[in-house]
Amino acid sequence: MSDIRGERLQVMLSPEELxxxxxxxxxxxxxxxxxxxxxxxxxxxxxxxxxxxxxxxSSYGVFGRGPDGHMxxxxxx
Length: 77
Description:
This protein is mainly alpha-helical. The protein contains 2 helices and 2 strands; from the N terminus they run H-H-E-E.
C-alpha cells in the first residue's frame, strides 16, 4: 500500500465504538486513532467475513443494538 493518503474518509462513531478503537490502539501501542482504524480495516478486509448477502447496514456495527435501540456491549448480546 502506498504511503500517500490522498483521500479523507469521515466516519461517525458511537461512544462505544470509539472506546473499542481506543482500547485496540492502546493495547497494540499504536501512535494514532487513524493508525488503529487503518489496521482494523486491514484486519477486517483480510478476514472478509461478511459476504454482502442482503444484510442491513446495522448488521455491520461494532456492537449490537438491544431491544430498546441502545448499543449493547458484545458480552451483553
